Amino acid sequence: MKTIKGPAIFLAQFAGDRAPFNALDSITKWAAGLGYKGVQIPSWDGRLFNLKQAAESRAYCDDLKGTLEKNGVQLTELSTHLQGQLVAVHPAYDLLFDGFAPASVHGNPKARQAWATEQLRLAAKASKNLSLSQHATFSGALAWPYLYPWPQRPPGLVEEAFDELARRWKPILDVFDDNGVNACFEIHPGEDLHDGITFEIFLDRLQQHPRCNLLFDPSHFVLQQLDYLAYIDLYHPRIKMFHVKDAEFNPSGRQGVYGGFQSWVNRAGRFRSLGDGQVDFGQIFSKLTQYGYEGWAVMEWECCLKDSAQGAKEGAPFIAGHIIQAAERSFDDFAGAQTDRAALRRLLGLEPGGQK
Fold it and tell me: Hey, what CATH class is 5-347 in?
């Protein structure tokens, strides 16, 4: 067993235009001051990171790591959630998702996809230059608008969507493989990879690609009413990253999983700050430790009620309090006795004078 690393914090929800959140040096000092030992960097945020430079310059990467070391934190992973989303976009979402890409490719889905694909390739190279072995991303979605089978889906629609999704991702995953980095897909509503079955469909089409792995975030399973503990039992060999994020689901006679088009604060399922929701983190940390997860526990903060400053302050001690120092020996070793093979056979009645 391994001891989970942490606490760490995903900087995406905290980066901003005002100090200390507008530069990597100051935001990592802020994170360290709250007790975080690691930071996960959103690769699209130019205030904190230059993805192209990181892919092309080891000197840039060495300087970045030096800044983090000076401030008392480590780099856990890079994220391309926004760029990964753009690898596959159904036309219904073209206008909405254009905002994730530079203006030069707005209104041009093919150019936007090409830009996103190149971003992922750069991320694989940047991760290698930064001595990282895991990377966080989204899969994008082609079939998502057809999630509910009304009107009835024509035969072959879902299969065609996943064939195309795998076709787009296979060359990207090969680049990750060339650079020794795992691409970890966050299983998330709005993505074609939104539960265990959809991940299996995708993985089968990729012939079990070794770099196709998982970012485990239980909050999205609470909102779907999916058993997140059984999910760990099923997929722990592929779980390489962990977002520590809380959520709650309180259905009523008026709404359930779909939320009635309500705002986050008025939905039956909503994200909460750590400890304020329904996720059983004690069991999650136990299972991940049991299965030898050796990555980071990274807080992703999203809450419709609590201020981000309070959420960040409370997150580090919450995670630290759940990390289990993995046992180095069995608790009952003190009662054990050294035995040789002859003694073992005597215990089984095999010799001397026993059965043969």
Answer: alpha beta
